[in-house]
Amino acid sequence: MAVPMRKNLELKARIDDLAQARRTAQQLATQPPVHLKQVDTYFHCRSGRLKLRETVGRPAQLIWYDRADQPSARISRYLLVEIPDAEATRDLLSAACGVRCVVKKRREVYLHRFVRIHLDQVETLGEFIEFEAMLQPEVDELDAQRVLDDLMQRFNLSQERLLDASYGDLL
User: Fold this and answer.
1) Residue 167's closest CA among 15, 59, 42, 5?
2) 71: closest CA among 145, 153, 160, 135?
3) Domains in the chain, number
4) pLDDT at 1 over 80
5) Is 40 exposed, middle or buried, given 0-12, 13-18 or 19+ CB atoms closer than 10 A?
6) What is the per-residue pLDDT for 137?
7) I want to staple 128 with a disulfide (CB 3.0 to 4.6 A). Which of 54, 72, 87, 120 is the partner?
């Protein structure tokens, strides 16, 4: 079975007040938040980024994604596969590709319409917010951009706070 290529429009920013961001996310959320503890192991690869995501209490995922490095909303194309044996997969990819870095984080996920709002506490890096608008036939890039613009205002995010890199690139 082929793995479908998915797309989202995303942006990431550094935040100074996690408690305030949490209050805003709770006001906007359509469901209770999901709390996750994740370890992302990034591997060297020819193009894009490749990581093994291990989430406590959930199956591991191998994720390849490609997106522009720019401090604004950008399209991310990605492939995602559940991995039954994270340790063996990590060992195999470490030997074959080499490890770029390991990112450890606590993540709160809120859902607002078709956007996942991530409040992240990243070990050694600090606190961040990320918006991922899931593009679908009924949600195009323009619709997604409008919602992300609105969320930037609601969370009082200035352009200067936006990041152009992944957590793996920041380490």
Assistant:
1) 42
2) 160
3) 1
4) no
5) buried
6) 86
7) 120
Residue 37 resides in a domain: yes
Length of the chain: 171
Q: What is the pLDDT of residue 4?
A: 85
> Distance between CA 43 and CA 34 in Å, rounded?
27
pTM of the full structure: 0.94
Domain extent for 77:
6-170
Cβ count near 131 (within 10 Å): 23
What mean pLDDT comes out for the span 1-29? 94
End-to-end CA distance of the chain: 35
Q: Which two tokens stand for residue 74?
A: 């950008």
> Residue 26 falls within a domain, yes or no?
yes
Report which DSSP code applies to 24: H
Three-state SS at 51: strand
